[in-house]
């Protein structure tokens, strides 16, 4: 592992944050960041959403450290400082959605090489929730999982869903998969949208935190998804919706003002997940970890109490129980 850039000037995280480069088994280089903690009672593997990057979760790492947990986060392929996958670096793009599991395997190798304390727990947001659900099916070695606004479905009017499928398939299969999805921009969302119109958070200071990071380090920015990404993500979400729930304890958070992911799909998944719990965050938008102090405290108190309660035992124990 080689040291990678880490922007401590904007992360607002615990002391000791750093990042390393690692190369996936297909040659794509990604960046993995960590906030270690002396005497930690475990480590949270934080799977960010689309467009996100390690430093965005510095404040989340501070919240987790205050509750006894170290944190590891990742720049998925095609975003942050990880290798961009097209000549134009701004559209969010992926060849196959399954390629994100290559990133997961590389992240786990880094976590082991760093000696991050176990037990490990998952905290996955938005697209990271889609990647994380698949990773749980593939044996992700965590004791429990928390999701926030997981991308198990995208919020689209029912009448437009067949159109989205047809358009995404048509462009992806005719060599136009590199094009931006309709209604999206090349510019980072937090720079393109005023706070008053945004779908991420109701907290102006947290929105400014995200804007400051992207303005200070434009190389972290990412625009809308490519048509290829849209088509492959729709397929992955549909496949996952038809699979049984993994044998891992789960708590999922969703804001009552969620407008980006499909809340009905989230409710259906939790209803079919034995022992899982859905926490509806009153007044929250898509990023409940990026809301005001009271909401964040509620989310992190609930998540870490859940991790504490599931610290004992192994995945094998749960599967056989």
Automatic annotation (TrEMBL):
Domain Serine aminopeptidase S33: 40-291
Taxonomy, superkingdom: Bacteria
InterPro entries according to UniProt: AB_hydrolase_fold, Hydrolase_4, MAG_DAG_Lipase
Keywords: Hydrolase
Gene Ontology MF term list: hydrolase activity
Protein name, per record: Alpha/beta fold hydrolase
